[in-house]
Amino acid sequence: MNGEDNKIVAFCCEHSAYPVANKAGRMRLHYPDNVRIICVPCAGRVDVQHILKAFEKGAAGVLVMGCQEGACQHLTGNTRAKERVKYTESLLKEVGIDGGRVRMVNLAPDMAQRFIDEVKEMAEKIEGR
Amino acid sequence: MQVRIGIFICNCGKSLNNIDFPKVKERVEKFQDVVYVDLSPTLCLKEGREGMLSAIRERDVNRVVIAACSPELKENVFGKALEEAGLNYNFLSMANIREQCSWAHEGDVTEKALELVRMAANKARFLQPVEKKDISVNKEILVVGGGFSGMKSALELSGLGLRTTLVERESALGGKLGEFEGFYGIETTPEEMLSSTRKAVEENGDIKVLTSAEITRVEGQAGDFTVRIRTGEKQVSQSFGAIIFATGYVTKILPQDFELKPEVNIISQRKLVDMLQAPERLERRPGTIGFVLDVSDENSRLPILFTLNNALAVKERLGSEVYVFCKSLKVDSEGVEKLYREARERGVVFLKFEEKPRISKEDGRVKVEARDVLLGEEVTLLCDFLVAEEKVLPPEGTEALSSMLNIRTDSRGFYQDENVHLYPVASERKGIFFVAGCKGDLDFTRTSTDISSAAMSIYKLLSPEKAIVEVEKVKVEPEKCRACLTCVRVCPHGAIQMVRVDTEKEVAKIYDHACDGCGICAAICPAKAIRFEGYADEQILAEVEAIGESL
Predict the structure, then answer these.
(1) Does domain B472-532 have CATH number 3.40.50.11890?
(2) Using CA atoms, how far apart are residues B319 and B312, in angstroms rounded to an integer?
(3) For B546, which residue in chain A has the nearest alpha carbon?
(4) Span B5-130: which CATH code?
(5) pTM of the predicted protein model
(6) Which residue of A has its CA nearest to B109?
(7) N or C: which terminus of chain B has fewer CB atoms within 10 Å of its end residue's CB?
(8) Which A residues 61-100 touch B at CB under 8 Å?
(9) Does the CB of B524 have a partner CB in chain A at under 8 Å?
(10) Quick one: fold of B251-392?
(11) H-helix or E-strand containing B480?
């Protein structure tokens, strides 16, 4: 694998998770600095190939962060993302990567603490791999 | 065209102390295709911006990377600056080194900042221009449903200078407001409210009223809907810019809820209102009147509104004893708490049950047996009339209409699922709005808010004769499209339609004015024929690739 540090790629929906990450920053709630946030217009934009590319490039974990269920501006974006994450998990298992390293997270635009908890949890998980 | 990237780093008034900016500057200069790097303390202010503009011009920069605060805050400002410098506003890629880097972590984060800039620079390489264009929109609005809220919507729109066509299924305007006996505490009767509104609509030159008419087909998208309207045998097609649905609701006593057919002693609210309006026609004054709530639907506010209003009217006009059986009375709509208190003061008795009351007949009267959980006792009531709860249901044709519009309904069959992003009146399709009763609940203050917000949204959408849209930000590449219809099926906004390119082939086309830019189609297209500029596959992948590149 490329790079020594365990990086996490977080695909963040611009309606919820991206502002949440900003909010966490504004509140100076510190979280592990190995997370790299990529803004997407909706969690439904995230494709399996994007997640796999992250692993190919050496990421140790991927988070797909979208709005809460029933609150997607595009109605089905977050549920589609959830299905894709599940499918990616099965692909990763086939090549011997623990399925828990890709996760779908549903956030409301004010859930800064939850965002941090999720990032920390993923960071701990990949630390102990 | 050769890519020439200019990177502008802002240290936010030297406040981001945990990033070593000179080091960042030195390192990013070595990135591929970078022709200019500048470090400024105030990129968002005039001096900083002017420095950026002259650097773009002098160094012939054609892709701009800005490493600063979150794009939410200043992306538009920087986009405009790019246009000033003669570049397309889309040739901008931002690295959020403030909120998501400097502020979010403790200790030195220079390495992370560098990587964020690298991600943005990688993406910048793939940016393509996006044009903005005026598209002409139709300023005529269609209002479906000639009830009180439909008429009010038409009046409100005409106040904003928009012409409307009001389509009503019945032979006359009016709808359901007349079914209310009155609103306690409001002097004007529903009849007076209706007739004055009807008169205003009829006298208004901007409103065209079509009665006994139905819409049979809706095609097109925001700014240009083509609607077929059937009046009797005649069908006409007309074009509209936006549509407001105020199709209302129906109420019905469901026999399975009461195990008794509605009969002489078990009556509907409507019938009670008839009695209240002509009390002299009653053989004798009813001594006791009971109401039952929360049996068929625990979520609806409408039966509660009816019950409280009518209970108070009974007290005032007939002076009967009034008992209300309910499970949990919901008084969250505006003014209802006051009504409830008023009712209690006037002697209306509320009884709270957990298990469904048993209703039977005894000596020509109705016997209601229930266990009051607050008293902890069985209560038996003999009443002259029992007003049964009516279930609020979507009107006939709602299902057909929603499938025609390709708009989802909630579990009860009403429009406008309570989605925070769409609440209160918008739908997943731009230019289509729902107000008042057709959303499944009715509350008078909320109805007027609904109407105003729908009218304002339409004004915003259509008011300039031409609407400005980003042209082909999301675009189908016709040569790659295999016409599998997947995108047409999944698009939550109904923005994709098939168009014929030649005699052989049909391809999907995305309508800019209807598209909300979610990118679901781009992710799902099996042929990868849809490109979402700004979030195209190669752009997202370029960002991801940056994490693996050694610095």
Answers:
(1) no
(2) 9
(3) A57
(4) 3.40.50
(5) 0.85
(6) A33
(7) N
(8) 70-77, 80, 84
(9) yes
(10) FAD/NAD(P)-binding domain (3.50.50)
(11) none
